[in-house]
Amino acid sequence: MAALVRRCAADPELLSLVPAAPAWDVPHRMLAAVEYLILAGEAEDYRSADDGWASFRSTVAARRAWVEAFVRERTVQTNEPQRSWALLPLFLTVARAAAARLDVVELGASAGLNLLWDRYRYGYAAGAWGDERSPLRLRGDERAAVPADLLATEVDVRRRRGIDLAPLDATSEEGLRTLLAFRTDLGYRTRVRGAAAIVRAEPPELIAGDYVELLPDLLRDRDGSALTVVFQTLSTVYLADERRDRLRELVERAGREGPLAWISTPTPDEHGQRRGDYPLELALWPGGERRIVARMDNHGTWLEWLG
What we know:
- The chain has helices at residues 2-9, 12-15, 26-39, 52-62, 64-73, 83-98, 148-151, 173-181, 186-201, 211-220, 241-257, 268-271, and strands spanning 101-107, 121-124, 127-130, 137-138, 141-144, 157-164, 205-208, 226-232, 260-264, 278-285, 291-296, 302-305.
- The protein is an alpha/beta fold.
- The protein has two domains: 2-73, no CATH class; 83-305, no CATH class.
- The strands form two sheets. It has a nine-stranded mixed sheet with strand order 5-12-11-10-9-8-1-6-7, sandwiched between helices. Strands 3-2-4 form a three-stranded mixed sheet, with no helix packed on it.
- The longest helix is centred in the last third of the chain and has 17 residues, at 241-257.
């Protein structure tokens, strides 16, 4: 794929599809546009062609207007359910501490697949958690084990809301195909299809917009009979410093006004720790002390539980 992108960069015809001031993700968009057509059965899979480059280029030429619109208008959109495997111990920690129903709000939710985290089946060294009938089963590499007593915690999620600039509807063929087009590895696609089947049965509320602007209204609308849990993974890295500071302030203000939980992967600037992995931060109000309780990689394929 890297070789393919280099050839695109040297091809005047393909470069003409790129905006004058391209964003960093334009190469991803170009590849995803062709992948979308392949998944739809509207283009040959260039990877199995005798001349992959010629096949790729002919697909773009045949669907030039559509590909150009995709490249110029679509942003990279993936939704990795595997992250729920790393997040689950934090959700269980909050549920055990609060002893209440949960209202969950995800920032940068994409299609909201991680909002259905309690509908998946999980495996850890100390045992399993979740619905045995779930079509999505998640395991990973535990570098420090999750305690068995934590896996005995039960949860009751009452409401699920997600905010995203351009949320996708994974219950539609177009939305699901878009999620699959931006990543080609089989494991990801299998997980997304499994999660999408669950979402179709119980779709979360997805809100289009800027979560820094919209979150205060959602937090003012909290129901005192449930604990609101706000969480995000790897979305705040795309915020400017001042907006990230504003998000932090509004969450802390909301915590002072009533019970609240916060689960987040802080940015490198915020945590100042090792590069290449992501700490998982947890805060619970009243109190609101932020603690790093685990570490994971960007896809949630490994977890180091710190407690």
